[in-house]
């Protein structure tokens, strides 16, 4: 019986130190990560480039609004309609030139309209911009489909 006990103790010691048998696919986590990245990467890059494209269009739109506002502010200082228009065009040109990497000044069409409303002079500045330089992604529209930027300013004669 002592020999039987010794054999059972030896079997228990051997079973504690034995490596488990691997069943199924090898457990290589680097390959699993590469496959997961390959599945997710197109969506991540589409979102990333979509944000960049949208941000570029949004910045261009804000730049046009800023330029029209600068033109309106400059036009208020003029005494005659001709002087107001020349001041506005100079301010708009300066503003668009300062933003020239984003805005192509040659593609901006500025229209200037003055009209009389009751006792005030209305100055309407409109900038129509058409540029397709940044429309390289299929899901981002070009800037030709946007409505023109219009800013209205009113000049009141203080003398009445």
Plain-language structure description:
The chain is an alpha+beta fold and 160 residues long. The chain has one domain. Helices cover 51% and strands 18% of the residues. It has 3 helices and 3 strands; from the N terminus they run αααβββ. It has helices at 2-17, 29-75, 81-98; strands at 108-117, 120-129, 149-156. It has a 3-stranded antiparallel sheet, with helices on one face. Strand 1 (108-117) and strand 2 (120-129) form a beta hairpin. It starts with a helix and ends with a strand. The model has no long low-confidence stretch (mean pLDDT 77).
List keywords for this structure.
3-stranded antiparallel β-sheet, 51% helix, rod-shaped
- SS field, number of helical segments: 3
Largest sheet, order of strands side by side? Answer: 1-2-3
Class by helix and strand content? alpha+beta
User: Looking at the chains present, what oligomeric state does this protein adopt?
Assistant: single chain
Which consecutive residue ranges, at least 5 long each, have pLDDT under 50? none
Question: Cα-atom Rg, whole angstroms?
Answer: 35 Å
Residue fraction in strands = 15-25%
How many structural domains in the coordinates?
Answer: 1
- Number of DSSP strands? 3
Share in helix: 40-55%
Q: How many angstroms separate the termini?
A: 126 Å
Q: Encode the helix/strand succession as letters.
A: HHHEEE
Short description:
With 160 residues, this protein is an alpha+beta fold. It has three helices and three strands. Strands 1-2-3 form a three-stranded antiparallel β-sheet, with helices on one face.
């Amino acid at each position: 019986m002592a020999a039987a006990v010794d054999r059972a103790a030896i079997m228990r010691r051997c079973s504690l130190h034995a490596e488990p048998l691997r069943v199924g696919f090898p457990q290589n986590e680097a390959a699993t990560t590469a496959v997961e990245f390959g599945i997710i990467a197109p969506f991540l890059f589409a979102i990333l480039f979509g944000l960049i494209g949208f941000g570029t269009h949004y910045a261009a739109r804000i730049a046009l609004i800023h330029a029209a506002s600068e033109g309106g502010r400059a036009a208020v200082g003029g005494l005659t309609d001709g002087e107001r228009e020349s001041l506005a065009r100079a301010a708009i040109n300066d503003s668009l030139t300062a933003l020239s990497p984003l805005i192509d000044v040659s593609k901006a069409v500025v229209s200037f309209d003055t009209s009389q409303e009751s006792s005030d002079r209305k100055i309407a500045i409109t900038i129509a911009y058409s540029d397709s330089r940044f429309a390289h992604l299929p899901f981002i529209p070009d800037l030709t489909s946007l409505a023109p930027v219009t800013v209205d300013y009113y000049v009141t004669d203080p003398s009445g």
